[in-house]
Design brief:
Helices cover 26% and strands 21% of the residues of chain A. Chain A is of the alpha+beta class. In chain A, the strands form three sheets. The first copy, chain A, has a five-stranded mixed β-sheet, with no helix packed on it. The first copy, chain A, has a three-stranded mixed β-sheet with strand order 4-1-10, with no helix packed on it.
């Protein structure tokens, strides 16, 4: 029978994929095998290095659960998430820039009424938010779904606080007739991504810090438009230049003081512009 | 600040790896990021495809436990394990060929005396094994450690039978003064790799079967020599040409009848030859 050497084994594996019924899956797996084998031939791992990689990936899966997604963290910290974002959302004039979803999104956040306080009494510097939802050609979009989530004043998401019985600093709104969503909250703070697991170990071993600059997350969905996944970052944050997940874009940095009614208070006014599908 | 597009993000990530203290880790991670980003740019995944990949890898980690290692199965079925083997053990005259370790190796198998029956009464066709351990230049190697493990007549390893209180068809021997290990067992059978998890799903989606041809596993270690990890396959098995993990080499296929004392019985005589370090 045919035997394989370190070059010919790649074609042997690709031959085995020829019977894949779905052409897209065949394309993806063919490319995955080619690039994975090229990587292995490039670094020429010892058996011990290979088993270390197996153990690392296994830990990444095993530490993941309903509220922690370590493979998304790995994708984020290796720039893969922002690369997928760049491929699917190239910059486009008149459309709000996108960034990573991150590991803390919850598909079913609590629905809240306009003008709610989503901090529910959590300590922190008060912030008023007033965002407007428009199409790329500036048409107002009432009844758009607007999900928001953020860290608290100590840098934790609700999912990282097992003592909380209910979601906090996380809400779903609908834009009103004027296409606005207004709510009260507290200022988000810079925070380290969860770094007590294998991804944190890898950051440490590669001399990297786990910090993200302060931001509010938004997911905005309206019928007939591409769903917008983005953040708004706080100007002046010391981690803007070295975000652990490469998520910062200039257009998403905001003063959080502009246009405030009262000096010394914090406010965020922003217009999101959605791309038609 | 600098912004990234789908090409420049790769250098941004590589820049972040510049502070890696260990040069080998920096080399491996730099190559990993380059090849991973090239793969992503090649297939241009949608957000949904990316999240499917995240969920797949998470399942691979989560189904793994003390007795099941799904990331090794993934590596095996994508030809990565045999590629790592080919890199580390190129064919060499006078040395026994190597093949994959597989996911069922146990680092602490029960120590058994020469001439033991390692089937402990399991049903199956009786087999007598007599292997000899030598160096590449044919020097006898007494007191070599010889681990053996195999499937039962229904195609299962002991680790796949939770009803077993003790290891079965798995043992550690020491070669005797004449450098031999002799034991009794049953014939191994062809078997499907565990395919009730994500790797099985992927095999099915790519039109592949999960079967491996019948074989005995051996791990042979002697001081001053490279540890040999290999199998001996049964000639005539219908899966020799399409082993799900690409592990078959011609030199490792054996009749399991040659040199038997009694016609109609099954026996395996083989000389393993180890490479000096």
């Amino acid at each position: 029978m045919d035997e394989f050497d370190e070059l010919s084994i790649t074609n042997a594996v690709l031959d085995r994929l020829r019977g894949t019924p779905d052409p897209r899956l065949q394309e993806v797996m063919t490319s995955a095998v080619r690039h994975l084998h090229d990587f292995v031939r490039d670094v020429r791992p010892t058996f011990d290095e290979w088993i270390s990689a197996i153990r690392f990936l296994t830990r990444v899966g095993q530490i993941s659960d309903d509220v922690r997604q370590e493979f998304i963290l790995l994708s984020d910290t290796l720039g893969v998430s922002m690369l997928v974002d760049a491929i699917n959302h190239p910059p486009s004039s008149g459309v709000t820039d996108t960034t990573v979803l991150g590991p803390f999104y919850n598909e079913h956040p609590p629905e809240r009424a306009q003008d709610s306080d989503i901090s529910d009494g959590a300590a922190g510097e008060p912030l008023r938010v007033d965002v407007e939802i428009r199409s790329a050609d500036s048409k107002l979009l009432p009844n758009a779904l607007v999900d928001v989530w953020q860290s608290d004043s100590e840098g934790f998401y609700d999912a990282q606080r097992p003592e909380l019985a209910e979601p906090r600093l996380r809400a779903r709104f609908r834009s009103d007739k004027g296409a606005h969503v207004r709510f009260r909250t507290i200022m988000p703070t810079a925070y380290p991504i969860p770094h007590d697991g294998p991804v944190g170990d890898l950051l440490k071993l590669t001399g990297r810090h786990p910090w993200r600059p302060a931001h509010l997350h938004f997911l905005v969905a309206a019928s007939g438009y591409e769903t917008l996944v983005t953040h708004l970052f706080v100007r002046g944050d010391k981690y803007l230049e070295s975000d652990a997940v490469f998520g910062v874009k200039n257009s998403l940095i905001h003063g959080f003081t502009d246009e405030c009614d009262t000096e010394g208070t914090r406010c965020l006014k922003y217009t999101f512009k959605l791309r038609p599908v």
